[in-house]
């Protein structure tokens, strides 16, 4: 299953996804392309594929992206290659903005869409400041955009409120686990169980 995770910058998407991966095996992360400069600690190919505007534009022109958008002044996109390569190997998580999520609603109707919110606007401001990755101007832009982005929440399937981190991770984990428990997803395992009932003397 593909999980599209969206929400205002600083609400905690990356943190939640990191925690989810450490608690639940068998999930992959869709690494996006971006023209944003690399932050301290970020790794090429793990966090993003960092490219120039020219390289990004070439990929747009050759239709290499399943979706892309300009977000807070930089370009971000999900490549078709990344999705086709990783969606075959089990669950896949995308961390993308609301414009990208809107594009994928039509292109990946089977995906599950999760919106993450902080408990309040002042808490979002605090988190963006405490993260210490962005300039005051960038933080101001991200906060301004957050007021618009949050209006999109009702178009998503799930809402995760990232107040207390452990609780929010449990909620995200529950969304993934509930899908893994669907009868349709478990037919292979069930067949073996059923076979043991039928073949046991
Ligand atoms: P996003 O990926 O949505 O931009 P981050 O995961 O980078 O957000 O989180 C922004 C900041 O908020 C980080 O400094 C992170 O450590 C902090 N943070 C994330 N979740 C919580 C939480 N539940 N409580 C307090 N701080 C949090
Ligand atoms: P950041 O610069 O903080 O890593 O990300 C800024 C915003 O860009 C976040 O809302 C993040 O979800 C979004 N984003 C990251 N990758 C993509 C992508 O491939 N497509 C789109 N549309 N948004 C993305």
Q: How would you describe the overall organization of this protein?
A:
Strand 5 and strand 6 form a beta hairpin. Helix 1 crosses helix 7. The longest helix is centred in the last third of the chain and has 16 residues. The model has no long low-confidence stretch (mean pLDDT 96). The N and C termini lie far apart (38 Å). The protein is an alpha/beta fold. The strands form 2 sheets. A 5-stranded parallel β-sheet has the order 2-7-1-8-9, sandwiched between helices. The protein is built from 8 helices and 9 strands. It has a domain of 138 residues: 3-Layer(aba) Sandwich (Rossmann fold), CATH 3.40.50.300. Guanosine-5'-monophosphate binds next to strand 5, strand 6 and helix 4.
What is the typical, i.e. mean, pLDDT? 96
Please give the CATH class of the domain at 2-30 and 91-199: Alpha Beta
Q: Output the CATH homologous superfamily of the domain at 2-30 and 91-199.
A: P-loop containing nucleotide triphosphate hydrolases
* SSE pattern, N- to C-terminal: EHEEEHEEHEHEHHEHH
What oligomeric state is this? single chain
Q: Characterize the main sheet.
A: 5 strands, parallel
Heteromolecules bound: adenosine-5'-diphosphate, guanosine-5'-monophosphate
Q: Name the shape in a single word.
A: globular
Low-pLDDT stretches: none
CATH topology of the domain at 2-30 and 91-199: Rossmann fold
Intertermini distance: 38 Å
Work out the helix count.
Answer: 8
Alpha-carbon Rg, integer: 19 Å
Q: How are the strands ordered across the major sheet? A: 2-7-1-8-9
Helix content: 40-55%
């Amino acid at each position: 299953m593909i999980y599209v995770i969206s929400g205002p910058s600083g609400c905690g998407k990356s943190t939640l996804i990191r925690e989810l991966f450490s608690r639940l095996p068998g999930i992959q992360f869709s690494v996006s392309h971006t023209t944003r400069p690399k932050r301290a600690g970020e790794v090429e190919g793990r966090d993003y594929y960092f490219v120039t505007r020219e390289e990004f534009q070439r990929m747009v022109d050759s239709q290499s992206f399943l979706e892309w958008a300009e977000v807070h002044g930089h370009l971000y996109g999900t490549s078709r290659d990344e999705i086709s390569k990783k969606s075959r190997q089990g669950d896949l998580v995308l961390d993308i903005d609301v414009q990208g999520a809107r594009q994928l609603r039509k292109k990946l109707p089977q995906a599950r869409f999760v919106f993450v919110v902080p408990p309040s606007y002042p808490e979002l401001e605090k988190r963006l400041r405490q993260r210490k990755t962005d300039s005051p101007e960038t933080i101001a832009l991200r906060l301004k955009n957050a007021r618009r982005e949050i209006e999109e929440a009702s178009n998503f399937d799930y809402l995760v409120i990232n107040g207390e981190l452990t609780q929010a991770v449990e909620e995200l984990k529950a969304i993934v686990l509930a899908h893994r428990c669907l009868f349709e997803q478990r037919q292979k395992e069930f067949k073996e169980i059923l076979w043991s009932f039928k073949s046991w003397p």
